[in-house]
Amino acid sequence: MLELRALSFHRAGQPVLDGIDLRLGPGEFVGLLGPNGAGKTTLLRAALGLLPARGHSSLAALPVRERARAAAYMPQGREIAWPMPVEALVALGRIAHPHSASAADRAAIERAIAALHLDPLRHRRATELSGGEQARTLIARALAQETPLLIADEPIAGLDPAAQIDVMRLFRRLAGQGHAVLASLHDLGLAARHCTRLVMLHQGRIAADGPPEAVLTAQNLARVFGITAHVAPGPGGILFQPLDTIGGGAP
């Protein structure tokens, strides 16, 4: 689904990504973790060919239309500028397909609207929605592309707790159906419970990569995030609770 080899990117002469090697396969829901400034958004954009990075990305190597059929992207920025109905905005996800007004396209749009519980909002102008409703609409637009790979940058930021859980369950179901999902996340607890694999970035490099219990160790959390936490198995997945910053005082 995605292969990155020696992917690097510099900004103002400083390394933001430094030699990233990463592969994603069908059935994986990978949570991309790291503190602010670790390079998460840069990695996602470079993987998509949206930045002039060095190294190899299997997505960036594709022609634009093929890339749009291979991967859907939900960026971190969620500003919706056009006062168009929610249903029409979700339908934009079908543009990359050759027959964007077919019965198959209509069915894909309806599946995406249902998955994000947007039916009551389908005729509302997207610019009039709350921030959380706009986020759900943009996720639905990405889902409507029905691509093998979904890349999402902080998709649950700003959502209420129930909506966050719904989205994480949806991504896990997509992976279970043979898709691959790569999402940058700040909620380590939800990442631990729902992702099949975690990749932890630190200063532009991969600091840890593996199943949640192998990545969310005391050593990794202290080195990368500067925190202590309680991590334990629980019903339905790992339970994660941050406890304190290293040193226990103000920075």
Automatic annotation (TrEMBL):
InterPro entries: AAA+_ATPase, ABC_transporter-like_ATP-bd, P-loop_NTPase
Cited Pfam families: ABC_tran
Classification via SUPFAM superfamilies: P-loop containing nucleoside triphosphate hydrolases (SSF52540)
Upper lineage: Bacteria, Pseudomonadati, Pseudomonadota, Alphaproteobacteria, Rhodobacterales
Keyword ATP-binding: yes
CDD domains documented for this protein: ABC_Iron-Siderophores_B12_Hemin (cd03214)
UniProt cross-references to PROSITE patterns, sorted A to Z: ABC_TRANSPORTER_2
Protein name: ABC transporter related protein
Keywords: ATP-binding, Nucleotide-binding
Taxonomy, superkingdom: Bacteria
